[in-house]
Each structure stands twice: as structure tokens, then as C-alpha cells.
Design goal:
Mean pLDDT: 84
Number of strands: 20
Strand content: 5-15%
Structural class: alpha/beta
Largest sheet: 6 strands, mixed
Shape: globular
CATH class of one domain: Alpha Beta
Strand order of the largest sheet: 9-10-11-12-13-14
Low-confidence stretches: 48-54
Distance between the termini: 62 Å
Helix content: 55-70%
CATH architecture of one domain: 4-Layer Sandwich
Length: 755
């Protein structure tokens, strides 16, 4: 078995995924399969005449699944499943047993400054915590401190498929946050000496980079060279992400290859090739320590070290085994790394390159042009543009794997990656190699380091320009997990079959598999029409089931400050009433738009904006920009707020239909659902004009009635009670505003309240 590590990792990942999503021991799965196997064998022994045919079919199965492989997968999956269960119990016990804390810990990170507090990472009893302190408290890496404070358990997802902060912290091996009431420094420099020194080097490098580059690009250089993105603005991060080049802000195989190249070229004349590889391995290990053992640097660093070791011992390095070893080390250290976006992207991209790069290059080289003139030009391009073809193949092969991940996590797929990565390939080498030289020189002479920094500033400005290329980004609804699995099965099968039928040199096993496929194809040939009809029937059935009307659905979305309600009618009409909002946090981008896409909603039929306060319309503004909106319902405005001006600009740019409503208007959504406008009237309330002229709407569906009240206050409440009798205000559910609402509750007839 040439790639045992790859099989072990497959089993190890299976055990973790089973434990994460099914929450039970994987032993039950193997017991189930064992019982099926025993039952099948028992039945075949009773029918001896069928044994020969059964053996023939099992022979085909054994071509793909050998007994040794199955045993390795079972053992490794069982081990990982047990480890995950043990780690998870530790987290659960910590959540149960900690509220007030009086502990001694060691600071193991540098300060991160937030708007209202400072954040440090501390280790207490071999567990990592975030420590939140006041702005005036300054701690240093390695400080041994006594902490008195309150432990806060991280929040799980607050909305459907929303961001799970608790699971995110587990990917970082963080238990939770401690809000410190009192901190006493007991001792300095108490951390591991190697880590202490490496952190000092990291700080020195960071200081030198900040001194050497201007403020606009120093953060980008820190991201490229050290993987430290704290100094990069959110706008720049967004640009790099949408242009599909955010991987340059994380340590990757590119950095490792340049380190190996620089070290071996600089030392092989003095020490020889083999010793230079040993030196390169030591430098890689130091680089991993200095940059903090992030998932991407561990993957790239381990693979680089194994490559160097293979050269030293005269062995051929296998990339698939190398990445398997790196993945296994990462997952043994923290099984929750498997749900980390950085793990998925760095390993997914590398696996894509391993499996698909050669196939894509072969496809490109096998393209046939009939026209003689163009055929000659194309062949010339193929021969002289090997590097160009290689860059294209690497970009496409990586995107094949990571596109479903970006669709799942970010609800977008970018088409600009070919152009941006092509441009990037010509300048990134200069930036990285120049950056390493600049870092090294700056330790001895900061002035000379500044001079080198000026030389590589131009490529960095070109990189910033490339990050602005973001055409072809498509917002998509969140794919289901089973759809992603089917996608991967399909592309890997397609890749395998292409290589099987287009490769001249095949192993005996591959020849047998090829013959088996031909046999299966021959066997099912008489049934092709039946298979086609069954497939069409299943598709029609699926479409019909989806078209069957369902019940009315009402979802209250947790947007923090403010309201957001999503209504889906039986005929799949969508209504969004308000969208929350904050001055410091983009609720629309971070909560509302992802929530709607998770609900498979990309087009909204009606948006009702009760009033134009930030906490009700802020999220809606982002929805209007990023999703398809057919109609917006608003009331007459007595005051043009800043949010209303932004709203007007967006609807003009997007050409969205806006309807102004008042008391007595009825919006017929479909046959069974309508919305009756109860307030405001033509004459607006002058007191607190935005809140008191909120739209008050009554949703009616069959016997169900629900009232939405916006943010009306006592003045508007009294107006409502004058205009309508308690019977007219009768409702099953009322969404109350967060201002005074006493009189209405006392007099109106309702069954339940939503706050």
C-alpha cells in the first residue's frame, strides 16, 4: 500500500465528521454493517446455487475496496471518534463548572485592541481562554497573572444556520471568554522559553515592517509575510476576498517554497546540497514557531520539511502522503480544525491541485483546432506558454475544490480568479522574496531595510490594484450538505474516469477497473430507456412536490438591536418586515443576507419598512443592494433621515418599485394572505415623528391574525385606540415595540405576544 497515510486520514476525518454531525459513536455504524454482512452471508449459504454469481460481483467491489483499506479506515475512524468525544466532554464540563473565576494563568498572546477593551489569550490549567480587560490594563506575553472575573460561555448560533461562535472558538482551541474584574501580575516571562523568544522576534519583525512601509501597505505586508491580518482594514480584506486572492494574506506553500529556495541557494556552496536542506528544514520550523502555528503554515511547513527530508535520505517525496501527514498532525492536535474555514481552504486548494492539475493541463493540450491557420498559432502557444498553462491549471484545479466551500461559507462564487491569479503570479514572487530579504536586513540595519522596502512597494501597489478586480462575483443560495457531497463524488469520479480512458499506461488494477466499467456499461445498455424514463419521472415528482402549497411560515430573526421578520406564504411569496441595524456593525451583511440565503431566498417579493430608524432599516439597505427585491412598502415620511436618503439612492440605482401606503390600504399578497395597513394616517403625528409614524400592519391568513407595530409610542398608541375598537384590533399574535405600549395591551384582544 503506497499511500497508507492518505487512507488513515480518510478514516480519521470520517470519525470526526460522524461525531460532529451525528453526535453518536461510530461503533454503531460498523455494528450495523457487520450485521448486514452476516445476514447476507447467511442467506447466500441457504441458496448455494447463487454463490458463484455473488462471488463474481464481490470481485468487482474488491477492485475498489480492499480488506486492508477497510480495516485501516475502521481503526482510524474509531480512534478519531473517541478523541473527539473526549475533547467535547472537556468543553461541556468546563461550561458547566465555571462561572466566577479566581485562577492563575499565563498570557500566551500579544494584546489585541478593541473599541472598548483589550483582548489577550491566557492559559489556565492547560485550557485556553480569551481574557477581556479594561483599556488601561497592559499585559505582556509570558506574564503570570492572577485573574478574578466572570467566565462567559460562548454563544451558539442564534439564527437558522447562523454563525456559531462556540464552534468557531473550538477551532482555535479557546474555551470561552473571561471578563476580568481584577488582574495581578505575579511574575514576568513565565511562558515556554522558545515561544517567548519567538514572540519577541515576531514583535521585532512587526515593528520593523511598520517602520519600513507606509501605513497604507504595512498591514498588507504583515499579512503576506507573517499571516498577521490585524492591521488590515475590513475594506482591503473584502477586496482581496472578492478578487479571489485572499490566500496571499495567509502563509502558504508559496512562502515555504521561497524560503527553501533562498536558504538552499544561500548555503549549498558552503555546506553542500544535503546540509542546505537540513538548514532549510530548521529555518522552516523556526518560521512556523514565529508565525504562530496557524493551520495554513502547519500544512505548508510540514510538507516543505518532509520534502527536504526526502531529498536528504534519497527518497522520492509523495505529495498526497505529505499533505496527509500534515492534516493528521493538525487534526490530532485539534479535531475541531476540520470545520475551520482556513483548514478547508488550505487543504481543499492543495488537494484540488494534486488531483486535477495534470488533468486540466492534459485537456488543454488535447484541444484540437480544425482551421489550419489558428491550429498553427494555437500549437505555438501551447509549446511556448508552459508556465501560462501551469498557472491556469493550478487556479482552476484549486477552485474546483474550494468553490463549494466559498459557496457554503460566503454565499458567493467568483469568476475573476483566472485573471487575478494570472497577474498575481508575476509579482508575488518579488514581494515574498523581497519581503524575506527586507526582514533579514532590517535586523542589522533598519535604514537599509527601508531602502529595500521602497524597491518592493511598487509590486505591492500593483497587488492592491489587482485586488480591485472583482468582476463576476455571483451571490448564490446556501447549498445543502448532500449537494456538496454529490458534487465532490461527481467531479472525482469524472476525473478518475477521464484519466482511466485517456491514459496509455495503466496498472493491472486500473485495467481490471476499466474492463469492469465496460462490462457494467454493456449490462445496463438494454435498460437505458427505462433508466431515462425513471429519471424523468423522479424529476417531475420532485418538482410537483415542491409546488404543493405549504402552511404560512413566520420567522423572527435575531438581529440584535431592532426587528426583522420573514414571512413565507403557502405559495412561496416572501415578505420581509424590517431588518435591524447598528451604527458599528453591518447587520445586513453579517446576519440578514446570509440568513435569507440559508433559507434559499434570493428574491424577495415584498419588503415592508416600518420606519427609517437605523435599528429597523440598516439591515434592509444591504438586502436591497445584494439581493433581488420586487417591491418595497413604506409610509409617508415626515422627516428625511440619513437612512432615508441612502434608501432613495439605492432604489434609484436598482430601479426598485416603491409603494407608499396609509391607513385603510390593503396589500393582497396572494389568494389567502393579505396585509391590512392600520396606521399611519395622512395627518402625521408630530411628536417623535419617525417612531410614532411607523407602519402598523395586520397580517391576515385564514383565521390567523398578527399585528406588526414598528416602534410606535404612547401617542400613536392612543391614536390607534381612538380609530379602532378592541374587536377590530383583535389578533392572535402581536409584535410589540420596544417603547411604552401599555394601553394597547390592556384594551386590545390578543392571544399571544412577541417581544
Amino acid at each position: 500500500m503506497n499511500r497508507a497515510m492518505f487512507i488513515i486520514v480518510i478514516g480519521y476525518i470520517m470519525g470526526i465528521i460522524w461525531g460532529l454531525y451525528l453526535k453518536i459513536s461510530i461503533v454503531f455504524l460498523y455494528v450495523f454493517f457487520s450485521l448486514i454482512y452476516i445476514l447476507i452471508n447467511f442467506q447466500y449459504k441457504k441458496r448455494k446455487f447463487k454463490i458463484l454469481s455473488v462471488k463474481r460481483y464481490f470481485r468487482y467491489i474488491k477492485l475498489f475496496f480492499k480488506f486492508k483499506i477497510i480495516i485501516i479506515i475502521i481503526i482510524s475512524s474509531f480512534i478519531s471518534n473517541c478523541i473527539l468525544e473526549y475533547v467535547n466532554k472537556q468543553y461541556i464540563n468546563t461550561y458547566k463548572n465555571q462561572e466566577k473565576i479566581q485562577q492563575v494563568g499565563i498570557v500566551i498572546s500579544n494584546k489585541k485592541e478593541k473599541e472598548y477593551n483589550n483582548i489577550y489569550k491566557v492559559r489556565i490549567d492547560n485550557k485556553n481562554y480569551y481574557l477581556s480587560t479594561e483599556k488601561n490594563i497592559n499585559l505582556e506575553y509570558g506574564d503570570k497573572i492572577e485573574i478574578i472575573g466572570e467566565f462567559k460561555e460562548p454563544q451558539a448560533a442564534r439564527n437558522y444556520k447562523g454563525f456559531d461562535y462556540k464552534e468557531y472558538l473550538k477551532t482555535l482551541k479557546i474555551v470561552g471568554t473571561i471578563d476580568a474584574d481584577k488582574i495581578v501580575v505575579i511574575e514576568k516571562n513565565s511562558a515556554n522559553k522558545i515561544l517567548q523568544v519567538s514572540n519577541s522576534i515576531f514583535i521585532k519583525i512587526k515593528e520593523n515592517i511598520i517602520k519600513s512601509y507606509n501605513q497604507n501597505i504595512s498591514g498588507i505586508v504583515l499579512g503576506i509575510m507573517l499571516g498577521d491580518t490585524d492591521e488590515i482594514t475590513d475594506e482591503v480584506k473584502e477586496d482581496f476576498s472578492t478578487s479571489n486572492i485572499s490566500h496571499v494574506l495567509a502563509i502558504s506553500g508559496m512562502h515555504i517554497s521561497y524560503i527553501i529556495y533562498l536558504v538552499t541557494k544561500g548555503t549549498q556552496r558552503s555546506f553542500g546540497k544535503r546540509k542546505s536542506k537540513i538548514i532549510a528544514s530548521i529555518v522552516l520550523l523556526l518560521y512556523m514557531i514565529i508565525t504562530g502555528f496557524s493551520v495554513s503554515i502547519v500544512r505548508a511547513g510540514i510538507m516543505g520539511i518532509i520534502n527536504c527530508m526526502a531529498f536528504i535520505v534519497y527518497r522520492k517525496s509523495d505529495t498526497l502522503n505529505n499533505i496527509s501527514i500534515a492534516a493528521l498532525i493538525t487534526l490530532i492536535n485539534n479535531p475541531y480544525s476540520i470545520i475551520s474555514i482556513s483548514f478547508l481552504l488550505t487543504y481543499g486548494g492543495t488537494i484540488g491541485i494534486i488531483f486535477f492539475k495534470n488533468t486540466i493541463k492534459r485537456i488543454f493540450k488535447n484541444i484540437k483546432i480544425r482551421n489550419r491557420k489558428w491550429k498553427y498559432i494555437f500549437i505555438k502557444i501551447q509549446r511556448k506558454s508552459e508556465k501560462f498553462i501551469d498557472i491556469i491549471a493550478v487556479s482552476i484545479s484549486a477552485q474546483i475544490i474550494i468553490s463549494p466551500i466559498t459557496a457554503l461559507k460566503f454565499n458567493s462564487i467568483g469568476l475573476s480568479f483566472l485573471l487575478t491569479n494570472l497577474f498575481l503570479s508575476f509579482i508575488i514572487g518579488i514581494i515574498v522574496m523581497g519581503g524575506f530579504i527586507q526582514i533579514l536586513v532590517s535586523f542589522f540595519s533598519i535604514q537599509f531595510g527601508i531602502y529595500i522596502a521602497k524597491l518592493i512597494q511598487m509590486p505591492i501597489y500593483i497587488l492592491i490594484f489587482i485586488s480591485k478586480i472583482n468582476f463576476g462575483n455571483i451571490k448564490i443560495i446556501t447549498p445543502d450538505f448532500y449537494q456538496i457531497i454529490l458534487y465532490y463524488i461527481f467531479i472525482f469520479s469524472l476525473n478518475y474516469l477521464y484519466n482511466l480512458f485517456h491514459h496509455k499506461r495503466l496498472t493491472i488494477t486500473q485495467i481490471r477497473i476499466k474492463n469492469t466499467i465496460h462490462l457494467i456499461k454493456y449490462k445496463i445498455k438494454p435498460y437505458r430507456k427505462k433508466i431515462k424514463y425513471i429519471t424523468i419521472l423522479l424529476m417531475i415528482t420532485y418538482i410537483c412536490i415542491n409546488k404543493i402549497p405549504h402552511d404560512l411560515k413566520i420567522f423572527f430573526i435575531d438581529v440584535g438591536q431592532g426587528d426583522a421578520t420573514l414571512i413565507i406564504t403557502p405559495n412561496d411569496k416572501t415578505i420581509l418586515i424590517d431588518g435591524g441595524g447598528s451604527d458599528t456593525y453591518d447587520v445586513g451583511k453579517n446576519i440578514l443576507v446570509p440568513y435569507l440565503l440559508d433559507r434559499k431566498i434570493k428574491t424577495i417579493d415584498y419588503i415592508i419598512i416600518s420606519h427609517f430608524d437605523q435599528d429597523h432599516v440598516g439591515g434592509i439597505l444591504t438586502v436591497l443592494q445584494e439581493l433581488n427585491v420586487k417591491k418595497v412598502i413604506i409610509a409617508k415620511q415626515g422627516e428625511e433621515s440619513e437612512q432615508y436618503k441612502i434608501f432613495q439612492k439605492i432604489i434609484q440605482e436598482k430601479n426598485i418599485n416603491v409603494v407608499q401606503v396609509k391607513k385603510g390600504d390593503i396589500i393582497n399578497i396572494d389568494k389567502e394572505v393579505k396585509i391590512r395597513i392600520l396606521f399611519p394616517t395622512d395627518v402625521l403625528v408630530t411628536e417623535n415623528i419617525l417612531n410614532n409614524n411607523s407602519i402598523v400592519a395586520k397580517l391576515e391568513y385564514k383565521e390567523l391574525k398578527m399585528i406588526f407595530t414598528g416602534d410606535i409610542e404612547e401617542t400613536a398608541e392612543k391614536e390607534l385606540l381612538k380609530m379602532y375598537s378592541p374587536k377590530e384590533l383583535a389578533t392572535d399574535i402581536i409584535k410589540i415595540p420596544h417603547h411604552r405600549f401599555k394601553n394597547f395591551i390592556n384594551r386590545a384582544i390578543f392571544k399571544s405576544t412577541t417581544i
